[in-house]
C-alpha cells in the first residue's frame, strides 16, 4: 500500500490573496479560485500543490512546517524578487550560525508564513 503527496494545506486570513501571491512567487497555475479553497499547482494536474483555506485567526507563532525553495538561478536575485512581491525577511535563529554556514535565506509570505530560499546545491 502506498500513498502519493497531493498538496499542502495553508490556513489563511485571505486565501485568494495569499494563493495568488504564492502562484506568482512560484510561477504556478491557479486550478481552483474559490475563496473557500484556493488551489495552485506547478501545472494543471501536477501535484503536489498548495491549497489555501480560510481561518478567522491570524498566525501566532513560528511555523512547525515550512517550504524550502531552491532557485534555478542565484539565490540573492530570487530573494530580491520575492521581497519586491511582498515577502519579508525573518530571523528564526539562523543568525546564530556563522554567516558562511548559512546557505539559506528565511522569508515570510504576506501572512507571515516562513519559508526558506536555499543556496546552490552542495
Automatic annotation (TrEMBL):
UniProt domain Glyoxalase-like: residue ranges: 7-118
UniProt cross-references to Pfam families, sorted A to Z: Glyoxalase_6
InterPro entries: Glyas_Bleomycin-R_OHBP_Dase (IPR029068), Glyoxalase_6 (IPR041581)
Top-level lineage group: Bacteria
Protein name: VOC family protein
Organism of this sequence: Pseudonocardia spirodelae
